[in-house]
Write a structure and sequence with these properties.
The protein has 699 residues and is of the alpha+beta class. It has 3 domains: 149 residues, Glutamine synthetase, N-terminal domain (Ubiquitin-like (UB roll)); 388 residues, Creatine Kinase, Chain A, domain 2, CATH 3.30.590.10; 128 residues, Four Helix Bundle (Hemerythrin (Met), subunit A) (Up-down Bundle). Helix content is 49%, strand content 12%. Strands 10, 11, 12, 13, 14, 15, 16, 17 and 18 form a 9-stranded mixed beta sheet that branches. Strands 1, 2, 3, 6, 7, 8 and 9 form a 7-stranded mixed beta sheet that branches. Strands 4-5 form a two-stranded antiparallel ribbon. The radius of gyration is 28 Å and the shape is globular. The structure holds adenosine-5'-diphosphate and magnesium ion. Adenosine-5'-diphosphate binds next to strand 10, strand 12 and strand 15.
């Protein structure tokens, strides 16, 4: 036991060029200079870069690395890397292992094949990657990976990381202004994130027999299994040995990379699981989540399983999300969303809560945009995940306190007291998790907010740069007002009261899955964008454009191109899914149906040929059903094909995407329906692919 514990502590972070490695391996003045760069986001001195690069290389060689790569996060949502060997020729056929400061700081991957919404015209197809020294380098697959941001040659951002880094700076600046007003000595504020990652595991040989899973990550056909999640026996159930072995190996791989993988358990649906890490700052949490997804897939393969990260791999079965737990913290570890003990601390706490409430209300459209993907469309509003309407759950106690502040009338939550902010003490907020509202898209859970709409397959960079930016904007407005005030206490009271009054429409503690809430939200004027393609164009609305430009997250051009990229990728996904359906229906399903039909017809004829007046009603009725739905299937194939052709003539990206949603998606549903009915009556040996029952109970 003792030695196993030691092994894990030694294993943890062993592949990371982290702070303690840097302290060990860098000359003191170089280390200090690099630290300053990291903490204050300053440009890196060239001489420092050379020394750091050399130390990194020596360390990486000891770890068995032969190559290095600039590891970046293009708009595809997955990470990209281009490997270069360390070798450098030194004449007479010999090489040395070399890595310069220049190669550390800047790289030039061929960027032309990454989505950019037209930001790079072909004549300037090159982009470059720039080291993000605020994230640690690490060794993975014998390669030194250097976390980088990815830009076009003109300096326009082409990736997911750059806006996140910019938003981290802006929220730091604005939060510090607020803290100074409270006399708080913090020198730095960062946002903290703990993403809970859901996923499915299925047997690899079965996965390989499903073209839809292989190509699109989700099943495009499939009737409901006879045993689904009705019994609720899977959630937190004991782990099957194969899954347990997978989780153990995954944990070890992640620990080596310094990822705080903490909690692993079964989820609600069969074959569904979750991994929750311990939270860390939002930049590193984002890198770590990308690596976690990568290793989930990799380690699953080693155990002959496929890991599905799609938001909705199986219709009618719970989908997968990624609960993005988010808060703000000072450099000395004070959680700004944690209620404190003194009236002073609580005034500060309430102001930060109010800032989040106002931010989410003012920019609920952006919160919806942040989670808008084709995959998440199948999940949001599916009565298992939060709806497409953004609202906030604060819980009864905190809501009661805000009510009392707004009205000036003490109530149950305030226990008769607490009215003057900063003067009276806040009643203790219960940390109890039992009364938690699990249906809320954005829930306050005692000392952090949990954004539950995030899709399982997406990078969390998107939700976090949006959260950081909208909260920074409100903190800036608050700081502007409070810094001017002659009587800080009075101004603070007035500001908090006004914010609650003006923004309480976004607060909802009830059941978000109910139809009544959809109607109530409409009465409150809260937007409801049912599909990604309804939401995405709102990204560049004038008020949102102004926000991003003001906080230097995007230029106008960068934001426009980003929206185009997201819209195009929506259309591409629908196209890919539709084409995959057509292939499967034509090449696998129709032939199977005809084959089975032939078998029944033969049986029918044989029976009749016996001339014994045998009852053939079973054969007849089966053949009729089969034949009828086979015809419907054949017609639906042609309709889907036609719909694809119709939309492909539409050149405008948004109109094209909207047409995909209005014409192609319904045509896909219309093809799926008869096939799913047929699956239930076709003989097992004739059905051309593994069924839901087989897939969901395969591990
Ligand atoms: P539960 O939601 O089941 O109660 P926890 O409260 O332990 O579980 O946390 C769930 C996730 O939230 C974990 O990833 C955890 O690290 C993260 N988390 C906890 N505190 C914070 C915080 N201050 N900021 C960001 N994430 C946090
Ligand atoms: Mg949770």
């Amino acid at each position: 036991m003792e030695s196993a514990v030691k092994d894990i502590t030694a294993l943890f972070g062993s592949q990371v060029f982290n702070d303690s490695v840097m302290q060990d391996r860098l000359p003191k003045h170089i280390y200090q200079s690099l630290k300053k760069t990291m903490e204050e986001s300053l440009p890196l001195d060239e001489n420092v870069a050379d020394v750091v690069a050399n130390a990194m290389k020596d360390w990486a060689l000891e770890k068995g690395a032969t190559h290095y790569t600039h590891w970046f996060q293009p708009m595809t949502g997955i990470t990209a890397e281009k490997h270069d060997a360390f070798i450098t020729p030194v004449g007479s056929g010999k090489v040395i292992m070399d890595f310069s400061g220049k190669s550390l700081v800047k790289g030039e991957p061929d960027a032309s094949s990454f989505p950019s919404g037209g930001l790079r015209s072909t004549f300037e197809a090159r982009g470059y990657t720039a080291w993000d020294p605020t994230a640690y380098a690490f060794v993975k697959d014998k390669t030194l990976c250097i976390p980088t941001a990815f830009c076009s040659y003109g300096g326009q951002t082409l990736d997911k990381k750059t806006p996140l880094l910019r938003s981290i700076e802006t929220i730091n600046r604005q939060a510090l202004r607020i803290l100074r007003l409270f006399g708080n000595p913090a020198v730095h504020v960062h946002t903290t994130v703990g993403p809970e990652q859901e996923y499915f595991l299925v047997d690899l040989s079965l996965f390989n027999q499903r073209k839809d899973l292989k190509v699109t990550g989700r099943t495009l056909f499939g009737a409901k299994p006879c045993k689904g999640q009705e019994l609720e026996d899977h959630y937190f159930g004991t782990l099957k040995p194969r899954v347990a072995a997978f989780m153990q190996e995954l944990d070890e791989e992640l620990w080596k990379l310094g990822i705080y993988a903490k909690t692993e358990h079964n989820e609600v649906a069969p074959a569904q699981h979750e991994l929750a890490p311990i939270f860390t700052n939002s930049n590193i949490a984002t890198d770590h989540n990308q690596l976690t997804m990568e290793y989930m897939k990799k380690v699953a393969l080693r155990h002959n399983m496929a890991c599905l990260l799609h938001e909705k791999p199986f219709a009618g079965i719970n989908g997968s999300g990624k609960h993005n737990n988010w808060s703000m913290s000072t450099d000395d570890g004070q959680n700004l969303l944690e209620p404190g003990d003194s009236p002073e601390e609580n005034a500060q706490f309430l102001l930060f809560i109010c800032a989040v409430v106002k931010a989410v209300d003012d920019y609920c459209d952006l919160m919806r945009v942040a989670v808008a993907t084709a995959g998440n469309d199948h999940r949001l509003g599916g009565f298992e995940a939060p709806p497409a309407i953004v609202s906030i759950f604060l819980g009864d106690e905190l809501t009661g306190i805000l009510d009392a502040i707004e009205t000036g009338i003490p109530n149950k939550a305030t226990l008769g007291g607490f009215l003057e902010i900063g003067v009276s003490a806040l009643p203790k907020l219960p940390k109890d998790t039992t009364d938690r509202n699990r249906t809320s898209p954005f829930a306050f859970t005692g000392n952090k907010f949990e954004f539950r709409m995030t899709g399982s397959g997406s990078s969390i960079a998107g939700v976090n740069f949006i959260l950081n930016t909208i909260v920074a904007e409100v903190l800036e407005q608050f700081a502007d007002e409070l810094e001017k005030a002659e009587d800080f206490r009075a101004a603070l009271n007035a500001l908090i009261r006004r914010t609650i009054k003006n923004h309480k429409r976004i607060l909802f503690n009830g059941n978000n899955y109910s139809q009544a809430w959809v109607e109530e939200a409409a009465r409150r004027g809260l937007p409801n964008y049912p599909s990604a393609i309804d939401a995405l164009p709102r990204f560049a609305d004038p008020k949102n454009m102004a926000l991003f430009v003001k906080h230097k997250i995007f230029t106008e051009q960068e934001l426009k191109f980003r929206v185009d990229t997201l819209i195009e990728s929506y259309s591409k996904i629908i196209h890919m899914e539709a084409l995959t359906m057509l292939d499967m229906a034509r090449q696998e399903i129709l032939p199977a149906l005809i084959g089975f039909g032939e078998q029944i017809s033969q049986a029918l004829l044989s029976k009749r040929a016996c001339a014994l007046d045998l009852d053939v009603s079973a054969e007849e009725s089966l053949l009729k059903k089969l034949s009828a739905d086979t015809s419907i299937t054949a017609a639906a194939i042609e309709d889907l094909d036609q719909a694809l052709q119709t939309v492909s003539s539409i050149k405008d990206p948004l109109l094209h995407a909207q047409a995909c949603r209005k014409q192609v998606v319904p045509a896909m549903d219309a093809l799926r329906a008869p096939v799913d009915r047929l699956e239930l009556i076709v003989a097992k040996e004739h059905w051309p692919m593994p069924t839901y029952s087989e897939l969901l109970f395969s591990t």
